[in-house]
Every structure is written in C-alpha cells, then in structure tokens.
Hints:
Layout: H1 29-38, E1 40-44, E2 49-51, E3 61-67, E4 69-75, E5 82-88, E6 92-93, E7 107-110, E8 114-120, H2 121-130, H3 132-159, H4 165-176, E9 178-179, E10 189-191, H5 197-204, H6 208-220, E11 224-227, E12 230-233, H7 236-244
Amino acid sequence: MFGTDRSAQSSPENTRSLRGIRILADVEPRELALLSAECDWRSYARNDIIFSAGQGGTRGDVVFVVSGVVRLARPTGPAGRISYVDVFAGGQFGETGILGLDDGDLTAIAREDTLIALLPEVRFSELLSRQESVSRALLFQYAKMLRNREAATGAASEAQPGATGAQRVYAELLALAEPRAQGDARGGLIVPRLPRHRELADRLSTTEEVVAGAIAELVRLEIAERDYPGLWIKNEAALRRICESR
C-alpha cells in the first residue's frame, strides 16, 4: 500500500514521461508513450514515506523513479541491522517480484521531492518478453551490481586483518571507484555516487563518525575531492598506501 501522493499539487502532465529511465533507453518513442499512459503517477515531498514494511511492498508494481531519489530500507538479519539503497532518477525497483522475491519487508522513503511511475508487473513482464533491449539492460544492471558487491566484499575482507575502521573505509572506496571517462583530463578514479555515511558504516561494521572522519582526512590530504554526488580520488597510489599501512 503506497502512501498518499501529492500529484494534485505538482507533477504537471508534461513531466510524465519515461524517457529518462535507463533500462527503457532503447524503447521506441511510441511504445514509451503507451507505457507512460499505463502508469500510475505519484508525487512525494522530501521525507514522505512512500510505503512502510508490512504494507505489501511494491504491491505487484514496478516502480520507475522519474525524478528525485527514493531510499529503500530492508532488515538484513536477526540483530535488527538495516541495509539502505538509494534509487536515483532514471532507476527502478520492484521488478524482482516477477522472480517471486517478496519485498513485503521493504520501506521506501522520498529523499527529495520525487516523482514515480508505477507499472503493473504483468505489463512489465510482457515488455521483457517483447523488448530484448530492456531485458539486456536489466541483466547488465544486475551484473554490474553483483560485480561491485563482490569487489567491495573482497576489498573489505582483505583490509580486515588488523585494519582500522578508516582503512576499511578506504578499501571500500577503492572497490567502488571506477576510472574516469576517456578524455577526462583530471585523471584518477571516481566513485560515481558516494554511499551515505550511515550506509558505509553499516556495511563496514563501523560508525558514521569514523566514515566521515576518514573521508574528511582524504580531502584534507588532497588525496580525494568531493565531486557531488560522488568522490574524485585524485591520488590512487597514496590512497592505497594508507589503506595498506599497518
């Protein structure tokens, strides 16, 4: 069950397009317009609860984040720890219901003023069967997520013996970093979207203060620089040295 939306207050008709959704990038404009017309469009203000755990999750819909940011929160174990994932404009969630995965324990909160479009799962499933480009984009998205998760887990594991909390943060940043786009004269590595301090702290079994301090120290040493919404690692070699030092 979704929270009360604010569509009557905002979300003019000319903003109701799915052309910014990444997995639909290669869908023909006519098909995209038909999909847009079939969606249930909802607007939320910053910090509005879109739905809470126990309310049925996405309720059989695939949710496209057209603008804004949606934070997904899910309990990860008996200790009560919560994992967080931010879905930015152009992303989607809820499609795993097609695979029989229950999302009833999911909570979704608008991190900014947000516009979402809800497409019934049955319609999305039919789209996957007809549009190879959508299936391919979805598989690529999952493969990238899995690769990043494995890299992050491996880096954190390698840094674990005798490592400080700050060094675990540095290892995680290296795992998340990617080479800058070809032709970018600045060089170095880029973390395209830096996770929030709380998310990093939960992932690395440390505190938000340690995460904040570690990143601030990199900026102070001119090893890194904030490049919103990411982090520019200007000196990879120096970061590796402090990550590995004992």
